[in-house]
Please model this.
Amino acid sequence: MAKLLSDPEFQRFSELQQKQASFTISSDEADELRDIVARAQKKRDDRAAAMQSIEAHIRQFDITPDELFSPEQIGDAARTYGLIPAAKKERALPPQLTYNGKPYQWTARALPDDIRVPLFETFSSGQSVKAFIATPKDATRCAATIARLERETGSAYADAWLAELALSRALVDEALAKLAA
Model:
């Protein structure tokens, strides 16, 4: 109930409940208490309806959790609800790429030629590689992808394309430093 009421409403609700418990509540105060409870129930019902609507849209458009939340947010929620151990391990996921609907993880091994060739040609020609990046909302993985491309091709990614990915040059430079280490 406290989450559904503002602080002054909740304070008044508590006062009226105490009066009701001690049988010193007037009929006007009882009406006020019913109104407060009715407003809280309406908010609860409105929230439930909104959640059902959101859930229906998520199902209808087949939206995945990684499209709504960053990996950090998903991990934090899983830790909060005890789905994974509370100790947060600092583990960087490898860059995730996609080409012709097929996903690729860019681990220590070289990328297969069916994605490597078009990716490197696009990058070397100074074009955007956003279409190849499977996790554009994950800034760390995007920066790691650009850093690896820069290191392997010897050319720098244009600042305009970095802005398209919402990356800063400093973040890419930091990823380059991690690669070197």
In short: The longest strand covers residues 96-99. The chain has two domains: 2-63, 96-180.
